[in-house]
Here is the input.
Amino acid sequence: MTAALRVGPRVRNPIGWRQRLARLGGSPVDLDLRAFDEPLADIARLEEEVAGLSDAQITRRGAELRAGAEAGLALDVLRAPFFALVREAAGRTLGLRPFDVQVVAALALARGRVVEMQTGEGKTLVAVMPAALHALTGNGVHVLTFNDYLAHRDAEWMGPIYRMLGLSVDAVQQGMTPAARHRAYRADVTYVTAREAGFDYLRDLRATDPGDIVHRPFHMALVDEADSLLIDEARVPLVIAGRAEPHDSRAPRLAALVGTLTAGVDFDTDEYGRSAELTEAGLARLERELGVSNLHDAGHYPLLTEINCALHARVLLRRDVDYLVRDGRIGMIDEFTGRVVPDRHWPDGLQAALEAKESIAPDADGRILGSMPLQHYLRGYPLLCGMTGTAQDAAHEIHDLYGLETVVVPTCRPMVRIDRPDVVFTHREAKEQAVVDEIRRVHARRRPVLVGTLSVVESERLAGRLRAAGVACEVLNARNDAAEARLVANAGRLDAVTISTNMAGRGTDIRLGGANEAEREQVMALGGLYVIGTNRHESRRVDLQLRGRAGRQGDAGTTRFFVSLDDDLLVRYGIRNLIPARLMPARSDEPVEQPLVRREIARAQRIIEGQNHEICGTLSRYTEIVEEQRRRLMERRQAFLHGRASPDVWRTVPDRYRELVEACGAEVVRRAEVAVTLHEIDQAWSEHLARCADLREGIHLVRLGQQDPLARFTDEVVDIYDRMEVEIDDAVRTALHAIRVNGRHLDLASVGVRGPASTWTYLVNDNPFRDQIGQMLTGPGRTSIAIFSAMWLMPLMITWGLVDRYLRRRARRRADPYR
Ligand code: ADP
Ligand code: MG
Here is the structure.
């Protein structure tokens, strides 16, 4: 049969010669969808027959296909009949029959691709097809959602389809008990956030009883909002921490001491209140008070770090903004969501300093028990795929980091949204006034307006101005995902003015006119939803996500960004300096009519994205080796845990070993040796992580000696690891001598083995020093300057943080002559 004779559904992207060339040149973006014609036609051919089945017959057919998959039939063979079945089940249960574009997206996902599909095109439904297909094998599939609320919503919403197919579905939620998690992960398809799943995995790695493990072996993960998770959060390490031995802390003393310092004399802060640093006078004063001759001496590195933490806690962490004090405990407020995050801490030193500042009893001194970048967690799935409205811009990074190709699927109906060019002002005040005026103008005609801001604070400020101008508005700032979803769902109604940070309400569909059909027509006649951005974001993808809120499923819509040269992003890149004075408007409340400015903004975004990409790549090269070690050690650990292997250190000391066996029996001794070994492995690993972190933070200094820092780091880490293996055996052997015999039992507590301690989790995102580490390691031009000046300014072992901050301040001064 020739192509011309073949009839059947087709989905096509417009492809220009540029894209064809790029693809030939190795671009990971695939726009050519011809490969999907045949599977799509196969599915279409089966429709009629499937439509004739009763509900019960559909369920039975699902069970047959599952039996086939479990018996080892290739999913390729089962795919067409199964997708036809899912399509029918979705139509019957939810009244949503997947469109051809959705089926094509599902086919691409099932093959392990990242799919770009615009907002509102129905990705939630798309996910069901590949997830259910791969669940037929009997191994669990994870759908990783953007937040907890969406995990719950999607599992509930899509539940009827799965159930009609004979598959089970469940969701994991923050705060669930281990038993409930265990149950949820036994479902055929589990909806969960990547963070929760990752934290569970880290906790599993420390289980001392196989029964405590909540996950099953990983099989497949489908990531929703994939760019955000695979790229933006990829370098965020997940950390679990636990109580360490209590020890004398000097935090209270340092907090008191730092409390006596004077701003502007002893320390300086930057204009955004993001960093604080001691002045020479401040340092001298602390040295005097502490009786230390030079805080920059290598030996005082820990003390200096603690002082910096105390300063940070005093100056930069604001009570009731960054944290709450409740019931004698510190509750950390998430910057994005505005909520107190349970079981989340700042990294040790900072948490301790904060507790000292608030004079509350230390909660617990944190010791990192396990940590892993999200990226490594995600790569643990044998099959990974994802979907998002903005994948093309991230396609190269996704390919570099995960080896995944990106497939672009067109919208079901043509996109008619109008994206107007940015309006640029010289001053923030003028911009904000213009935004208010624009909203009033549009709102006067009852057209719905959605405004995207950068921060909670900015949202509140804008809302205040609007209310003062007599415009009622809703403010979303992700304090509560479920409530937000309800509000954002109404953002398309007549008269609605909704202000939102860019995270708020993500994943929720905005229908024009809400649920009301007549109102929908009215809103369409007004031009649909009007989306206003009050800032350009660092990442173009985030701007595109905001734009994507308008024009869903072929609706009318308009988008426009208002920016000012005072905006953070523009200040940081010194864009004001690039604009010749004669092009500046005479009055600051008039917009700048210069295409040059718009081009520069786009360029700044590209530069930042490039830098982030570089940081991400470098950090991942640093974590790679440690990850490999983790895999090796954990394999050994899990083999002991599950009884696949037995530790054999104690037998090497025959006298003592025999003594114990005679007292308690061989089985008791064997179990004790396993428990001791697991304990020592865990101790050693958490020690290893701490050593690697220290090493990584100090390693940039080797550039001074013209060595490659990564190679040097790798060598050292391999050494430390080898030593650690020996140390573990030594510790296990020492325990053999030290362990107390208690009747017919061995007293594990006598060698420090205790039951599982309470743990908490944090993301290293929460670490204020993180970005500096990243930039230090990748070192774009600036770093070499840092190192160069470090040579002259201070002794070799100076903390990188101080140098970096100094340079940042200089860079800012250069960028902003008005300071
Ligand atoms: P996305 O995640 O792609 O932004 P959603 O999954 O939230 O989109 O779905 C957006 C809207 O599209 C929902 O209201 C859903 O009911 C609707 N929808 C999805 N698929 C279909 C379909 N096949 N037929 C009709 N409506 C659909
Ligand atoms: Mg979605």
